Prior knowledge:
Blueprint: H1 10-13, E1 20-21, E2 27-29, E3 40-42, E4 45-47, H2 65-68, E5 75-79, H3 82-94, E6 105-108, H4 119-122, H5 124-134, E7 139-144, H6 153-160, E8 165-170, H7 188-200, E9 204-209, H8 218-228, E10 231-234, H9 237-240, H10 247-250, H11 254-260, H12 270-283, E11 288-290, H13 291-295
Parallel strand pairs: 1-5, 3-6, 6-7, 7-8, 8-9, 9-10, 10-11
Antiparallel strand pairs: 2-3, 4-5
Helix pairs in contact: 3-5, 5-6, 7-8, 8-12
The structure holds iron/sulfur cluster.
Iron/sulfur cluster binds near residues 55, 61, 112 and 113.
Amino acid sequence: MNETSLADAPERAGRGPIAWVENKSILTPTSGYLAPGFTHTINAYQGCSFAGALCGTFCYAQHNHWITHGREWGLYGAKADVRSAYRRDHDRIKRPGRGEPGRLVIYMSSSTDPYLPQESRLGLTRALLEEMLERPPDALVIQTHHIQIERDLDLIAALSAKSPVWASITVETDQERLPGFPPHACSPRRRLETLGRLRASGILTQAAVSPLLPLADVEDFGRRLDAACDRVILDHFLIGDGSPGGARTRRTSLIGRLAGSGQERWARLEVLWETRDALAGILGASRVLVGREGFCAV
Length: 298
Ligand code: SF4
């Protein structure tokens, strides 16, 4: 895909046709990276239409063969009947005929974004949140790259009154256009503004600086994070991509893009600790969490 034409791509704009994926179940038991904090993940879409955006260049989900089946990373479909699938899965876990109810701590989403452009038309994430109001999980993290999450502020606030809910928006960098990379899925400045409005509505908010990418002004970024969110989760691909030494990310264009734009120092782990210390100096150490431990702190 031409990096300069992303905004015009029908798929990225959410206008193109979409395949419906039949699914008996929508809650997937966690394993691996998220397992210490979450019992289940939920993905309303199969694949992701932000594949051609900046985050798609290093996206960890693109390495999951169960999703891609060898296809180029992109959006493959939308799940059909998400409401009834959630009801069935929830009741099987929380209302078993015999034995104690199970735990339901949900990460939404692990291999897509709940607020793709297609969501504005299809409303699958909104439908799931409506179902969760009737059948609340024990806790929920809503993880997105996009400000469309603000559309559901009413539902998220209502659900927060029943269960702990974290609204988590990725803000990998403070730069609106990162040299050497495709455009963002959504402006970092606007993501911070959205976090601030969610927080002002009483919703728990976190900024996922993950993976950490080149920052223009860490002090200014820290001040803006301080105002926008309750906590920051900081991560680097060398420890956070779910493979030893960032092996998965090394197969992507990320390191080459950093080197090609004179930003190779951000491919080293030292920048993570330098940034952690700088942000902790502004937000306080208890509000700056790192890596898996941070992501799994629900
Ligand atoms: S939004 Fe998430 S799942 Fe989609 S391409 Fe970006 S990192 Fe991958």
